[in-house]
Structures are given as C-alpha cells and as structure tokens.
Fold this protein.
Amino acid sequence: MSRFWNWYDENIALATTVAALLFVLQLVHLYWLTTDVVLRRLTGVSYFNPSALFESAIVVVDYLEIQALISVSLIYLNDFRRGDRVRALAYLVMLNSQWLHLFWITDEFVLAQFFGEPGVGLPTMLAWVAIGIDYLELPVIVDTLRRVPRLLLE
C-alpha cells in the first residue's frame, strides 16, 4: 500500500483534478433530479425537457458515477491517512452513502414510488432519503473543486 500512496502523493494534482472532473459531472444528474423528480413531486410539473444529446449525457454520467466515487474517496482516504481524520471521515460518509442509493434505494425506486404504481413496498419517505443522499454530493463536489487550483499552483 505504501507504494500506491507514494505514487498518489507524487501525482496528487493530477489525481485530484481527474476526480473533481469526474465528480462535477454528477451535477448533470442532480439537475435532472431537481427539475424532473423533485419539482414534479412538489408542484406536479416537470421542468425537465431534455434534448436527445442531454439524455445521452445523463446516461454517460450515470456510468461514470462509480469511477467518480472511487476516485474522490481516494482523496479523503489520503487525508485520513495524513491525519485529517474528522473532516475526511465526514466527507467519506457523505460520499459513500451514495452506494446505498446506487444499489438499494435507486432512482428507479424513487420514480416508481413517486410516479409509478403505488405500493412498491417501502415508504415514500425512503424515496426522499435517497434524494437527500444524492444532494450530499454537493459539499463534496465543492470541496474537491476547491482543492484543484491550489494543487495545480503547487
């Protein structure tokens, strides 16, 4: 493991930049979530009318989410390893709660619970939990993006 972390430390600017770029793409997913799912549930109106290109972008972003989660987790694992334990752990929890959303409380569950046939078998509140988990990406995205200029200047 020490060889990996040595390599990671030597390439921290590149690794963080790539991770930030991958993770900032999740804003596309959050845009869809907000304008279609959340606003449609709250107001009855969807404000999401994507072009075919934008729909394709959403699919690409969804396929890159796992790579983004892993690459950004490495940033905070490195921080944890270096002694910034409380802050790193908080960001790791926010970030890695996404796995719960990816594999259990999925977007499909949320859509079915909100707009599909009733009686999916789990409470609607669980759909709101999944949405909240998605929004936990925002502070991590901001923190990751804030690191890039500083590391590139070093």
